[in-house]
Design goal:
Layout (H helix, E strand, L loop, with lengths): L6 E5 L8 H14 L4 E5 L6 H10 L6 E5 L3 H10 L2 E3 L15 H8 L4 E4 L4 H4 L6 E4 L4 H13 L1 H18 L2 H6 L1
Parallel strand pairs: 1-2, 1-4, 2-3, 4-5, 5-6
Helix pairs in contact: 1-6, 4-7
Amino acid sequence: DKKIAPLLVAVGRFTFKKAPLLTINAFHRVWLKHPEARLVMIGDKSGLYQNCVEVVKALKLEKAVSFTGKLSPEEISVWMKQANVFVQHSITAPNGDMEGTPNSVLEAAASGLPVVSTFHGGIKEAVVNNQTGYLVPEKDVVGMAEYINKLIENPETAKSMGEKARQHVLENYSLDKQIDK
């Protein structure tokens, strides 16, 4: 009965507001405690992508972090089904650019994944803190890592949060509800 390595998934363009470098820094702290953990970053290879590759190399995370490039919704869904946790460290970019409610967060929750993200934009409504996932202040990589570790170390909690996340999205973000709004 081989224990499956914890798999974290991040989906999004490599832009400032998605803060992929902060996600990698949080993951590095997780990896130091759980060297079997893996992070898959899905998104087109533009923007901060090259910086991310360099940071992964500098932190010696090449075996733990993989970049898939842009994937189809079906391919993303396959990764979400295999993952244990969805991570996204959204922040307000230097130019003031912010997220609304990221589709990737809603898709992860709909897939039954607990989400670890930030108190930012529409994420505060999409993720019910301490129930469907965990939210940390923007740029709090230490807090993000602690919550990811908590989910890795408590798979039952992760599973039940993921189920609640799925319910929350189905009840509050169905296409019909969005159209009504």
